[in-house]
Write a structure and sequence with these properties.
Strand content: under 5%
Order of helices and strands: HH
Number of strands: 0
Mean pLDDT: 87
Radius of gyration: 18 Å
Low-confidence stretches: none
Largest sheet: none
Structural class: mainly alpha
Oligomer: single chain
Amino acid sequence: MPPRWPREPDRKDADFRKIDDRMNFAIHVAIAASINSGLWFFHNLKGTTWEWLPWLTGSWTGILLVHLIYIAAIANYSDPSESI
């Protein structure tokens, strides 16, 4: 069941931005996991050597880690109208 938002969605709303960024991150993790697991499955199934595959998986994991650090520590979700 998808999450319900109690009011009209608006990117100016700090709470909405926070949950939207986290849902975006979850979608990116799901896409990365499905593509990487598929690639590794066919890599192991065929028994071939794909030297680029560990680099792709490591790079994608690094990008996801940077994305997680951004939404968890760097992103400012405070309401800009409260600071005035």
